[in-house]
Amino acid sequence: MIYRVVHRTAYRYDLDVSSSYGEAHLHPRETTGQRVYSSGLTIEPYPEQVRERRDFFGNRTTYFTIRQPHTELVVTSTSIIDVSDRQPQLGPAADVAWDAARDLMRSERSADVFEARQFLLPSGSIPHSPVVVDYARPSFTPGRSVTEAVGDLASRINADFRFAPGVTSVTTTIDEVFEARAGVCQDFAHVTIAALRGLGLAARYVSGYLETLPPPGQVRLQGADVSHAWVSTFVPQVGWIDIDPTNDLFVNDRYVTTAWGRDYDDVPPLKGVIFTQGMKNELDVTVDVEPIPENDPILATLAG
Prior knowledge:
By secondary structure, the protein is α+β, with helices and mostly antiparallel strands. The relative contact order is 0.23. It is globular, with a radius of gyration of 20 Å. The protein has eight helices and 14 strands. Helix content is 23%, strand content 38%.
C-alpha cells in the first residue's frame, strides 16, 4: 500500500510571539517493510534557520528558529510512503518462548542485542512499576511463545483500559494511568512497555500513523486520522516485533512509522519554546493518511 500522509499542526496565540524555537519528528523513517519515497516540511512563518540531523535513535529530526513576530505558527509535513510486509519476523518469533528471549537478552553477545539492551532500562516517563509488572505476569507463563504472551497482554490492556481522550496528559504517570484504567494510545504504549521491561524484555516506544477506515457505506473523512503510538519488543536472533495495544493488533500494512525512542518524550511530533507575554493559545492538529489510487499520476512518477 502506498500512502500520502499530511500532518498539519497550527498554533494560534493571543499576543505576538517574538521568537519561536521548535523540534519536529515528522519525517517517516526507512525500516522493515517501509520505504519513504518523499517527505517534506513547510513552516509558516518562514523560519530564519532550519537544520536537520539524525538523533541518537536514528530518527530524522528537524530544528527551526523563527525570529519575526507572529500570532500563528503552522507546521505541515507531507510524505509518500510504500508500506508492505511489515513484520516478516512474526512467524519466526512465534517459535521463541518469551522466557528464552529474556534469557538471551542477558547472555547473547551480538551487536543487535547490545543495541537493544538500552530499551531494557527505565526511562523518564516509564519508570519501573511493580504494579504494572504484576498485572502482566498472568500473560507470561513459562514457555509461552513471545508472540502469544505479548499478544495476550495487549488484548488484556485493550479490554481492561478505556480509551478516553482528555483524561490524561503528557505528565500523567504510569501508575496514575494504571489506577484510572483509562487514557490514550500514548498511555497504553507506556503501560505495555513498563510491563515488558519489568519482565526482562527490551521494548521501545514507536510513533507514527494508522490509516483509519470509515464505517461500511460511508466516505472517508478528510482530517479524521490522528498521530498514533504503539510498542516494539525485541526477540534475540529474530528482530523487533510491533504491537498496538490500543487496537489489540500486531502492526500491519495500515501503519506508518515515524520515529522511535525510550518513551514519548524522545519523539513528540512537535515541541519547542516560545517567547511571548500572551497567556493563551489554541492548537489545531489534522492528519490524513490517504491511500494513493492506482491511477494516480504520482505513481507513474515514483515508478520512473
